[in-house]
Amino acid sequence: MNFQPLAGIRVVELGRSLGLAYAGKFLIDTGASVTSIRTLSEEVYSHDASLYVDVRKERFRWTTDIGPSLIEELLPSTDILVTDLSDSELTSLDLAWCQIRDQFPNLVLAVVSPLGRAGIRGTYHSGELAMQAMSGLMHLVGDPNREPLSIPYNLASFQVGLHAAAAATAAVRRRSKTGAGNRVEVIGVEVLASYALSYANVFTYYGIKNSRNGRRSPGSGGRYPYAIFPCKDGYVSLIARSARDWEGFVKMMGNPQWAKDPRYQDLYGMAVTYPEEVDKLVEPWLAEHTRDELLALAQKFQVPIGPVRRIHELESDEQLQYRGFFERVIDEKGNEFVVPGRPWVTDPREPGVLREVENTRPKEASQDLKG
Amino acid sequence: MSPPATGKPIPGRVKSVPELSKSGLGSIDWFEDLIVVEATIGLSAPLTGRVFAELGAEVIKVESEHKLDVNRNRLPRESDPPDFPNRESFSLLHEGNSSKKSVRLNLKSEVGLELFVRLLKHADVFIQNFVPGWLERLGLSIEALMKANPDLIVLSAAGYGQEGPLRTQRSYAPVMTSLAGFDGLVGYSDGNVVGTMALALADLHSAYYGAYLVMAALSGLPEDRRGCHIDLSQIEATTTLVGEAMIEWQRTGTAPGPRGNRGPKGIEWRLIRCQGEDSWVAAALPENTPEGLIEEDQLLQSREALVERLQALGIECIPVLSIEEVRTDLDFAAHGLFQQMPHPLIGSVSTTGIPWHLDDVVPKATGPAPIFGAHTREVITGLLGVSDLDYATYKSLGAFE
After folding, report:
1. Which residues, numbered 176 to 205 in chain B, qualify as contacts with chain A under a Cβ-Cβ cut-off of 8 Å?
2. Residues of B in contact with A56 (CB under 8 A)
3. Which CATH number belongs to the domain containing residue B103 in this structure?
4. CB count in 10 Å sphere of residue B393
5. Residue B356's closest chain A neighbor by CA?
6. Residues A251 and A350 occupy one common structural domain
7. What is the pLDDT along chain B (401 residues), one digit of tens a residue?
8. Helices and strands of chain B, counted as H and E runs
9. CA nearest B203: which of B88, B322, B42?
């Protein structure tokens, strides 16, 4: 099955951030066509990121010569305008919502920002770091006696794009019922804060302090184990949410004598009061097994174990291979790279090509859009 | 449950208080014409359904005594009195299921299954995340359901997808972030993995991925719009988070691992300890940062002063908020990031909001997670038009266990 429900939907992404570019990627992945107009000559995100998110886009650099006319040319045939420009920038381009909603009544406007567009936080210099730091997420990651840890690469920008694509698509569906476009807004820090809070509420529920706890979830989330452990060739995550899970682990370890002690059947006590004591009983056994051995045992005993994979190991994962998950992208020099594909079953597609950024607009493309 | 926002000023942010944005909580009716039926457990797939509920859809969670949602079956707290309704109280139950209806159907009974199929004939969307094969064990299949209702959009959101050697492997969010290579990237610069055990990112990320795909299926141009089956794999959705890292590995020949606090373009992200318990400021310091700009010991400085000083120099610099600070933040509260609702059995519950502003309105949760089976009679006699007499017969035959 080829799942491309947004085929025929035209999107313009206008601005500079990676979150914006991710929104375009998600929309392309479901069939939309995306014209990307970048407002700065300086690249604000890495070429690696661009190769992942900007393939299959028609890309232009904003210049005073072509920018305004390009917008004027594109908007009549655009379904979604997604932008991270500030309100003042949009106003100066005659693109503020109050300026365009009457002229283009079918248009959906999706605006994104790291910290919002109002108040002092809207004036802050902000990006990926600000979104992670202010959301509560970073405070929960890392060792308790060290500084908080950030998530590498661009988790927040990714989520901004995903939520913007979803909210904009909801507005497209709304438009099909009312005939009118809507304005949707996604604020990155709020998305990450909603993520951090959702699970933090679990710790609050069990009276566990919400604080970073190294490789272990705070208070093991109320039941032991809930942590990443070292093993023979790396690390594995072990999670038990029920007595059945823990019994499965114990059986997997060969029913050691210590596990018969009622002290090691009290899931809450092991989780909150003496997890390190239980770690000392479990870790020697784990140290004798590789990640793959543990995954095989996990399948046999039906317990949740996840090997901590390294990036270079992903492509050979048998489950991901089976489903034909990975695909290829090609950079401007013709080099091919394997990247994560679309996480649902759909027909394979040609490798995505990262096109050069154009400074002028091809006439034929312009006429095609006008037509 | 979470305390309400108290208005306590947040260091480093106090000046934002007078200038809140114009967005506020309100009801959204964008999907009021939609009926969503779900057979889901846990957080991820239920949260997908909740997004539709808070955009106006009627979302019906089909549940059974024989297959309880794990979030209705959590370990009681020591402080809970003997008659405390644990089945209705757990935080993740409300995170995933606020604003829905609950219909109790025993799908292992012939009559329960019959009503389930009838319900799906009325549905626009069906969301399910049980272990692949469960429908077949009941004598159903996705294909049969779509044949009965050709316009039905089905989202299957299992951990590993519907096919493949690991399809029946049990999965929790931290297992998925580990398998996806994500946790292996998180740690200090000593290279040891720390991971993200407190976050369960895979659940939340996959929930919104699923919501997006269903919205896309609903939003296609009219001539292309039709029922379909979306086979979403949560492990694959989580793996999409490491696309940039995969490219870096192929470009450099070195598999990336933990690298401490360092930005995507190699910029140092300095964490500076400030006045107060576990109080930090994060700053993205450019390569040409002058010597002495950041004093090694900022313990006598407030976060506010440091943030102001570095922001004035054009440096991305921000306080690292704790969860309690996020909960008491006025801007977040004004935008409905956490919402409190009365609950008929446990007083009140709070839940996290859907973080979207739709024409400046943030979706308001219309109620807590439904009490188990609370809407069974309403839906079966209302939506399905079953008479009271027949309802009693179905009940006597075990349809609603």
Report:
1. 176-181, 183-188, 193-201, 204-205
2. none
3. 3.40.50.10540
4. 13
5. A186
6. no
7. 333 333 333 333 333 333 345 678 999 999 999 999 999 999 999 999 999 999 999 999 999 998 899 999 887 888 899 899 999 999 999 999 999 999 999 999 999 999 999 999 999 999 999 999 999 999 999 999 999 999 999 999 999 999 999 888 878 898 999 999 999 999 999 999 999 999 999 999 999 999 999 999 999 866 656 799 999 999 999 999 999 999 999 999 999 999 999 887 778 899 999 888 999 999 998 877 777 777 655 566 788 888 998 899 889 999 999 999 999 999 999 999 999 999 999 999 999 999 999 999 999 999 999 999 999 999 999 999 999 999 999 999 999 98
8. 14, 14
9. B42
pLDDT tens digit sequence for A75-91:
999 999 999 999 988 88
**For A351, which DSSP code?**
P
A171: CB partners within 8 A, 6+ apart: A80, A108, A110, A181, A182, A184, B30, B358
Given CB atoms, is B236 within the 8 Å cutoff of chain A? yes
Q: Which domain holds residue B152?
A: 31-249+371-396
User: Listing from the earlier edge strand, what are the strands of the sheet with A10-15?
Assistant: A58-61, A33-38, A10-15, A80-83, A108-113, A183-187, B357-358, B361-363, B24-26
A263 and A337 fall within a common domain:
no
The pLDDT score that the predictor gives to residue A362 is 47
Give the nearest chain B residue to A226 (CA atoms). Answer: B197
* Structural domain boundaries, residue A136: 10-194+325-370
Please state, in angstroms and as integers, the Cα–Cα distance from residue B37 to each residue in B62, B130, B153, B231, following that order. 7, 14, 10, 17
Domain containing residue A182: CATH number: 3.40.50.10540
The C-alpha of A64 sits at a distance from chain B's nearest C-alpha, in angstroms, of 25
Judging contacts by C-beta atoms under 8 Å, the chain A residues touching residue B18 are 119
Instruction: Please state, in angstroms and rounded to a whole number, the distance separating the CA atoms of residues A188 and A157.
Output: 7
ipTM reported for the complex, 2 dp: 0.94
List, as one string, the DSSP characters of B18-77: T---S-EEE---TTTT-EEEEE--SSHHHHHHHHHHHTT-EEEEEEBTTB--GGGSPPPP
Do A179 and A242 share a domain, yes or no? no
CB contact under 8 A, B75 and A204: no
DSSP secondary structure letter of residue B191? -
Q: What are phi and psi of B51, to 5 degrees?
A: -55, -40
Residue A296 sits at the chain B interface (C-beta within 8 Å): no
Residue A268 lies in a domain: yes
Alpha carbons A99 and B252: distance in angstroms, whole number = 47
**Number of domains observed in the structure of chain A:** 2
Residue type at position A331: D
